[in-house]
Design brief:
Number of strands of chain B: 22
CATH class of chain A: Mainly Alpha
CATH architecture of chain A: Orthogonal Bundle
Number of strands of chain A: 0
Number of helices of chain A: 11
Helix content of chain A: 55-70%
Radius of gyration of chain B: 26 Å
Order of helices and strands of chain A: HHHHHHHHHHH
Oligomer: heterodimer
Number of domains of chain A: 1
CATH superfamily of chain A: MetI-like
CATH superfamily of the largest domain in chain B: P-loop containing nucleotide triphosphate hydrolases
Distance between the termini of chain A: 23 Å
Low-confidence stretches of chain A: 1-38, 304-314
Chain lengths: 314, 628
């Protein structure tokens, strides 16, 4: 897990000879091309793997919105006497340990997983990135204060933190989002800070400082665009961690409250069916996998504007 | 163009034979040929140089000798024979064996080639252990022999150090030792001295030459510097745009080149006098734009005298008149870049005054006003890191326009186009990011961004060092033209004397943060010089064969003995390397400022007459270009 030090180097980077060496204009081809079609531009920026990712993510976002409407059964209804049943026409993805329809439970659970985990991951990464930028750009004492505070937070295990907070304030979806986000901010902060500190030493930042730019401008325009890619990769990772943390909390009865269940809890509660190869445990796991793979595929295949490598460190 | 196979028995056999080599590059499904059918051959024990600008395919060709094509490239056709091995028909295992035994590679950047976490010895003997050509003990002994052959200091123990504990020139030689440890028949040197100072370059070149001669290795030497190649090579291949323009013996290429492009390359080395000094220098001296008095600066925590722990600049004073250019020359580590950063406000000064246009210039950036920001612009050496890779050229140029002049929308667009035109770039580049530009184009954008502010003073920090000769010469032309037309002043930092001489009116030589010599540009042309200036001037390779050997003969003479130094802070920093140092003076008392007959001020114990006598007597024969 080291998305920090090596920005992806595209093959084109290795090919300076292919570029016109002197100031020879190739004016015929390039100026009109990027403007001609937005869609073509998008297709150029996102490869087909990225397209697969985008489709997966979009699919689950739609399900999160309409899941309860298209679910064949109510989520908590005990519809079948058969527990851990296999695939059938009435229960396409089988039934769980209490005989409930898995398809319905996954469809209804989507909004909890996507809603809470995605919201928490976005929150954690955004806050972490902002604090990290702050620490790198601002005077040294700000960096010291922020770093020590987050070091202290890292030392508290995320589950214990969540336990304490939920014990104090009671469980609720908003609180879950806040707690899980809070638990993952320090990690995001560490990574974004180290990225930003390295970028701050580069000459284009020095030029901007000598030009008299404000700190906010330097952080926003000069530094942020060059660290956004590793931060997005980190976001994908953080999202997976939060799904796991949520399912852990749900297992302890502190997460999403029954009869509702997020996907992580679905896997947990049906773990007994694993020995029988029951779809009740496989299907929620597949759902988690498809969403995380989708998110990561999409992020990894987002190209920067210009699509050229950024110049490897010399 | 091609050479015939050996006819007589007196010639050594052909070691490398390349026929019709073609290399293609693929980028987004588009295939373009970057090497178009190259033929050459090298006999055993010979040194062949591949020379050309960046983009000429010289490194691509050199790498294909190892059976290697860079990411995105493919060797599309042709034949490469090394000894009796057909390189291109080898499978993975065969190529591995080839690289183990037959061909070795010395890359341009040794610091990137060494792992900072392991000792040098471990890394130097690694190829031998990896390919099982020797036991660890044998390899170590061999490495020490190589260290000795490469004239490295304390060959027995240097291997125990880590890469950051040796200098850049030493690291480059250690990299050669790593390449030679498996006794390869062929060594490929890829611009091994391009990143080094001239004084270091001599030592490295001499070491390479000696070791090649002693081991009878066949070498391919890639470079863009004809003068360096003249010292090293028996044969020269001149490349341009992936084709061979001319092949011939070194002496012939240098003396009577057949090809127009070769003549252009030869001409690019000799910068014309581009300074506008004659026009600008009138009888009434122009008022100073920038004046620095007694500047001390450095890094690390301050002591009780307010001086930093690491002192980089030591009592430096200078003056730049309006519309003139001051060249600052020195090796890496001499404090040149720090000087520019102090003026730009990026490094705080410990002591000293800086006056800008008659007003004191505040120390820190936050105390400066918008006019200061606008009128002083800095242009960094490395355009790769000086331009934000995620911004388009249009964004980069529009920002200073908006910040300083409040230009937006169409007005900004017009001005951006005018700026691109000014630095001779096509408008089509506006929508590209820096990644899509060549090195020379990036440096032009870098300049255009500084010009956008309409500055009075541009701090040029080694602006041509990362570029090859032809492109660098074009940038220098541009700078001279801008100065003539816009009345700019430059603080021009470089380690290349000929560049400084081409563009500057005044020069200043820095050594270890001390200003050892300063004066008008002409003081560089002829002695007397400060001993350090002399070393710099005479370390620039001459464009003729045999220069390196003569020069080595001169510099390997032992230095005069010098006793331990007195504990005085301001002693001459150059005393450890000075060939004319005086025991009892240089190590005891700080040197005083002296004026030479030609108007230069030097920091030395020798009087002008002394230096004249010493230097004129021992002067090496030079090309006429230097006395111009």
């Amino acid at each position: 897990m080291n998305p920090i030090s090596r920005p992806p180097v595209s093959p084109a980077e290795a090919l300076p000879p292919a570029l016109p060496a002197p100031a020879a204009p190739d004016a015929v081809t390039s100026p009109a091309a990027p403007r001609s079609s937005r869609f073509a531009g998008l297709r150029e920026r996102v490869s087909w793997l990225g397209m697969i990712g985008a489709v997966l993510v979009l699919f689950w976002l739609v399900i999160a919105c309409i899941g309860p409407l298209i679910a064949p059964h109510p989520g908590g209804a005990f519809t079948s006497a058969d527990v851990f049943a296999s695939y059938s026409a009435a229960y396409p993805l089988g039934t769980d340990y209490l005989g409930r329809d898995i398809l319905s439970r996954i469809l209804i659970g989507t909004r909890f997983t996507v809603g809470i985990a995605l919201a928490a991951a976005v929150l954690a990464s955004t806050a972490g990135t902002c604090f990290g930028l702050c620490a790198a750009v601002a005077p040294r004492w700000v960096d010291e204060v922020l770093s020590r505070v987050f070091d202290a937070l890292v030392s508290i295990p995320s589950k214990v933190l969540a336990l304490v907070v939920i014990a104090a304030f009671g469980s609720g979806n908003t609180l879950l989002i806040l707690v899980t986000a809070f638990a993952y901010i320090p990690g995001a902060f560490r990574i974004s800070r180290s990225l930003a500190v390295n970028l701050m030493t580069l000459e284009y930042v020095q030029v901007a400082r000598a030009r008299g730019e404000k700190l906010l401008y330097i952080a926003r325009v000069e530094v942020l665009p060059n660290m956004i890619h590793p931060m997005l990769a980190d976001f994908g990772l953080r999202f997976v961690f939060i799904v796991l943390l949520l399912s852990g909390l749900s297992f302890l009865g502190l997460g999403v409250q029954p009869p509702n269940a997020d996907w992580g809890s679905l896997v947990r509660e049906n773990i007994g069916g694993l020995a029988e190869g029951s779809p009740a445990v496989l299907m929620p796991a597949l759902a988690i996998a498809s969403l995380t793979i989708g998110v990561n595929l999409l992020i990894d295949n987002l190209r920067r504007r210009g699509a050229f490598g950024t110049g490897a460190p010399k | 163009m091609t050479m015939q196979p050996p006819a007589g028995t007196s010639c050594p056999p052909v070691m490398i034979d390349v026929r019709g080599l073609r290399v293609v590059a693929r980028s987004r499904g588009v295939t373009s040929e970057i090497v178009h059918g190259v033929d050459f051959s090298v006999r055993r024990g010979e040194v062949l140089a591949l020379i050309g600008e960046s983009g000429s395919g010289k490194t691509t060709i050199a790498l294909s000798l190892l059976g290697y094509a860079r990411n995105g490239c493919d060797i599309a056709g042709g034949q490469i024979r090394i000894g009796d091995v057909d390189v291109l028909s080898l499978d993975d295992r065969g190529r591995r064996a080839l690289r183990a035994r037959t061909v070795a590679y010395v890359a341009q950047s040794a610091s990137a080639g060494f792992n900072p976490a392991r000792t040098i010895m471990d890394q130097v003997i690694e190829p031998a252990l990896l390919h099982k050509t020797a036991t660890a003990a044998q390899a170590r002994m061999k490495a020490v022999e190589l260290f000795r052959a490469l004239a490295l200091p304390s060959p027995q123990t240097i291997g125990e150090r880590y890469p950051h504990q040796v200098s850049g020139g030493q690291l480059q030689r250690l990299m050669a030792a790593m390449a030679l440890i498996t006794d390869p028949a062929v060594v490929v040197f890829d611009e091994p001295t391009t990143a080094l100072d001239v004084t270091t370059q001599i030592e490295v070149l001499a070491a390479f030459k000696k070791v090649i001669r002693e081991l009878g290795t066949t070498a391919v030497y890639v470079s863009h510097d004809l003068a360096v190649v003249a010292q090293m090579a028996d044969q020269i291949v001149v490349l341009n745009g992936g084709t061979v323009r001319e092949i011939g013996a070194t002496a012939k290429i240098l003396r009577s080149p057949d090809d127009a492009y070769t003549r252009e390359l030869l001409a690019a080395r000799r910068h014309d006098d581009l300074s506008v000094a004659s026009a600008a220098r009138s009888d009434t001296p122009a008022p100073p734009l920038l004046e620095i008095r007694g500047l001390h600066a450095g890094y690390g925590s301050r002591d009780r005298h307010g001086l930093p722990a690491t002192r980089v600049l030591d009592d430096v004073s200078l003056r730049i008149a309006k519309g003139s250019a001051l060249g600052v020359i020195g090796e890496s580590g001499s404090g040149k870049t720090t000087l520019a950063r102090v003026v730009a406000g990026l490094v705080p000064r410990a002591r000293g005054e800086v006056w800008f246009d008659g007003q004191p210039l505040p120390d820190s950036l936050s105390e400066r006003n918008a006019e200061h920001y606008r009128r002083i612009q800095i242009v960094f050496q490395n355009a790769d890191t000086a331009l934000n890779p995620s911004h388009t050229i249009a964004d980069i140029l529009a920002r200073p326009l908006k910040l300083y002049h409040g230009l937006r929308g169409n007005a900004a667009k017009q001005r951006t186009l005018a700026l691109l035109d000014r630095v001779r770039l096509p408008a089509a580049l506006l929508d590209r990011t820096p990644g899509g530009l060549s090195g020379g184009q990036k440096q032009r954008v870098n300049l255009a961004r500084a010009l956008a502010a309409e500055p009075s003073l541009i701090l040029c920090d080694e602006v041509t060092s990362a570029l090859d000769t032809v492109v660098g010469a074009a940038i220098i032309d541009l700078l001279a033209e801008l100065r003539r037309e816009l009345g700019l002043s430059y603080l021009f930092i470089s380690h290349d004397i000929s560049t400084v001489r081409a563009i500057c009116d005044e020069v200043m030589v820095l050594y270890a943060g001390q200003r050892v010599e300063s004066g008008a540009r002409e003081v560089l042309s002829s002695p007397p010089w400060h001993p350090y200036t002399r070393m710099l001037v005479e370390s620039v390779p001459d464009l003729r064969q045999g220069w390196l050997d003569e020069r080595r003969a001169c510099v390997t003479k032992p230095l005069p003995p010098l006793a331990a130094s007195a504990d005085v802070a301001e002693l001459c920093a150059f005393r450890d390397r000075c060939p004319v140092r005086i025991d009892g003076k240089c190590n005891v008392t700080p040197p005083s400022l002296k004026w030479l007959d030609n108007g230069a001020a030097i920091l030395c114990h020798h009087a002008s007459g002394d230096l004249d006598a010493l230097q004129v007597a021992h002067r090496m024969p030079r090309e006429p270009e230097l006395s111009a």
